[in-house]
């Protein structure tokens, strides 16, 4: 019995050896280091989408709401388009704009028709874009809207609502946006030297609508002030030497206009009577407004064949020789208007010489008289005659 008790110690040892023999090959590498079992890849937890509840209802095709006007207001939102928009890319939630919707059911819609629905909501834009919104309040669009024209452009008409994208990319999108309301003007513009270069060539140097009319603070182009400042508007591009050099256009067109009768009169009106209609030609009176053609285009209003007709708009009695008195927008030189150049050169030489000669003669005569007086002296009671 004593031997049996003393031999019982071997049982736990054998159990330990068996345990190592069975499990060690699976958990040990050949070098004796423990093998680390690969851990299962955790299933990613989907990110919380604050718009999920909105999308659940507003992605169901065909959902509409009848309006009192009889129109059906669509309640369907293209959520993929929204995610690609400038707001979606910044993770702005639906309630960022629809601040009045905090639970369900939503507040009742009070709009009579679809346009009322838009007019009631576009002012939300000013919460994030106050500067742009304030600028629109002085625009002709806001003036027309305040005057009762419900079709006057509001923020969402130009930028969209749920699919808002960069309005400048691509650049021709600007003019395409304006064409939605101004289709007839756009039809002229796209055939002009500016519009064709923008729409067909994506030329970055030609003006879009907003380069001439402004962006948010668009002013009425029929006012006297707009007309007076229009040469400066054209001059922004046509006095840029680097830009004009690309197309072989001289910047003298602006400088010569300001220097001649028309431009001088406009400058005087702008300084003295900016709100009074000017009675002389500005750039677009001769070149056109939205239908401007290249000066060598057969249809251009300033090409030689049409120039007399253009002049007669302001000068109805002009004869065939009238346009020849205009030296175009060139500063006279031996190549352009040589006769005028040499006459100017003659006077540039003769007039200074004549005036200079007279000043020299009178100066020498004065000096001569002073010297004679000093030499002869002047005694009391004695007069020195100037002709001696």
Give me the secondary-structure topology.
Layout lengths: L1 H6 L2 H18 L24 H7 L5 E3 L5 E3 L4 H6 L1 H4 L24 H8 L8 H7 L3 H7 L8 H5 L13 H7 L3 H7 L3 H9 L7 H5 L10 H15 L2 H5 L6 H8 L1 H12 L10 H5 L16 H8 L26 H39 L12
Antiparallel strand pairs: 1-2
Describe the structure.
Among the domains are: 111 residues, no CATH class; 42 residues. It has 20 helices and two strands. The N terminus is likely disordered. The protein has 388 residues and is mostly helical. Helices cover 48% and strands 2% of the residues. The radius of gyration is 42 Å and the shape is elongated. Strands 1-2 form a two-stranded antiparallel sheet.
Main traits of this protein?
single chain; 388 residues; mainly alpha; two-stranded antiparallel sheet; 2 strands; 48% helix
Poorly predicted tracts of residues: 1-39
Sheet with the most strands, sense and barrel status: 2 strands, antiparallel
Separation, N- and C-terminal Cα atoms: 173 Å
Q: What multimeric state do the chains show?
A: single chain
Please give the number of β-strands: 2
Could you tell me the mean pLDDT? Answer: 84
Instruction: Count up the helices.
Output: 20
The level of helicity is 40-55%
Spatial sequence of strands, sheet with the most strands: 1-2
Shape: elongated
Task: Indicate the structural class.
Answer: mainly alpha
């Amino acid at each position: 019995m004593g031997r049996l008790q003393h031999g019982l110690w071997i049982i736990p040892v054998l159990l330990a050896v068996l345990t190592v023999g069975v499990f060690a090959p699976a958990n040990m590498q050949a070098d004796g280091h423990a093998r680390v079992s690969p851990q299962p890849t955790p299933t990613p937890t989907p990110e919380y989408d604050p718009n999920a509840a909105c999308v659940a209802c507003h992605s169901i095709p065909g959902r509409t709401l009848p309006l009192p006007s009889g129109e059906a207001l669509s309640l369907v939102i293209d959520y993929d388009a929204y995610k690609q928009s400038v707001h979606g890319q910044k993770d702005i939630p639906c309630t960022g704009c629809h601040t009045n919707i905090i639970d369900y059911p939503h507040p009742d819609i009070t709009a009579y028709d679809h346009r009322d629905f838009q007019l009631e909501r576009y002012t939300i834009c000013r919460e994030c874009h106050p500067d742009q919104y304030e600028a629109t309040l002085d625009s002709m669009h806001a003036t027309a809207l305040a005057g009762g024209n419900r079709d006057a452009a509001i923020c969402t008409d130009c930028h969209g609502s749920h699919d808002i994208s960069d309005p400048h990319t691509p650049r021709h999108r600007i003019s395409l946006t304006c064409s939605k309301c101004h289709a007839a003007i756009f039809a002229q513009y796209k055939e002009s030297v500016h519009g064709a270069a923008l729409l067909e060539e994506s030329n970055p140097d030609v003006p879009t609508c907003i380069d001439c009319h402004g962006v948010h603070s668009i002013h009425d182009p029929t006012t006297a002030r707009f007309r007076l400042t229009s040469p400066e508007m054209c001059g922004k591009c046509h006095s840029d030497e680097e830009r004009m050099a690309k197309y072989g256009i001289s910047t003298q067109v602006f400088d010569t206009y300001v220097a001649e009768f028309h431009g001088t009169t406009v400058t005087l009106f702008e300084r003295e009577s900016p709100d009074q209609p000017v009675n002389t030609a500005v750039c677009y009176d001769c070149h056109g407004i939205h239908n401007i053609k290249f000066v060598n285009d057969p249809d251009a209003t300033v090409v030689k064949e049409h120039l007399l007709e253009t002049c007669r708009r302001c000068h109805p009695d002009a004869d065939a020789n009238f346009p020849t008195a205009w030296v175009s927008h060139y500063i006279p030189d031996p190549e352009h208007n040589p006769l005028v150049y040499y006459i100017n050169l003659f006077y540039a030489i003769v007039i200074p010489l004549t005036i200079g000669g007279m000043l020299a003669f009178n100066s020498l005569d004065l000096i001569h008289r002073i010297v004679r007086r000093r030499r002869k002296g002047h005694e009391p009671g004695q007069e020195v005659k100037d002709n001696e």
